[in-house]
Write a structure and sequence with these properties.
Layout lengths: L1 H15 L6 E5 L11 E7 L17 E7 L2 E7 L10 H14 L3 E10 L9 E9 L27 H13 L4 E8 L8 H9 L4 E3 L3 H9 L4 E10 L10 H24 L2
Function: The purine nucleoside phosphorylases catalyze the phosphorolytic breakdown of the N-glycosidic bond in the beta-(deoxy)ribonucleoside molecules, with the formation of the corresponding free purine bases and pentose-1-phosphate.
Pathway: Purine metabolism; purine nucleoside salvage
GO molecular function, one term: purine-nucleoside phosphorylase activity
Amino acid sequence: MLESIHNTTEYIKKRIGDFEPEAGIILGTGLGALVNEIEVEKQLMYSNIPDFPMSTLEFHSGKLIFGTLGGKKVVAMQGRLHYYEGYTMQQITFPVRVMKMLGIKTLFVSNASGSLNPDIKKGDLMVIEDHINLQPMNPLTGRNDEELGPRFPDMSEPYRHDLIKKGLDIAKANNITCHKGVYVAVTGPNLETRAEYKYLRVIGGDIVGMSTVPEVIVANHMGLPVFAISVITDEGFPEVLKPVSLEEILAVAREAEPKLTVILKELIARL
């Protein structure tokens, strides 16, 4: 894997010249429009990058975007990868390792999630302060390479407290409803049953989703500070649970995205 990471990084560097991103951004389901705020200098299709996995979802663009956001140089993944697409955890997190090799100092992650907490409503935002990992595999399984990180990385602060505070302060200053809480990562792609929603709430979850945690584990393994934020697109309250469609989830994500963009743009500007 290390050889593939280096080869992919060198390929990208040859195409972006002396551009060195300070921050990496992973854009979640229905949240790709943030790139409209980026002063784009270069775009690379995943399909043209050696060893780079391609998203199989029709609503994920599959581009690496290089440019300036909030006065800082960034690289953004417009289209993320999921375990339910059939990829290994190492493939899902490969782009994080490449972004680190390209020079990023901080990773910003967004996603669309379902609420488990009645105080967190559809259309709200939530900054992730911790997570519970219920996905079946770990991206660090297998032989460890010390060049990438330690064998047993610490996870006592997977999401940086100072970034969380700044993000919440930005939300408050802009009158944006934004909570903080615990994200539960599940495999998907099906949504949860009533009993599962109840269980996830009982074990301490505030929201649930199908991504993010593998990338956060690898970012911590490589010493990258992380800020993660969710758009709440549906509500998993067992007593009043209603069917939800992908179209509804995408519509809520698009409607809430401008609020997420404000927070991420201002937070990156403060780096």
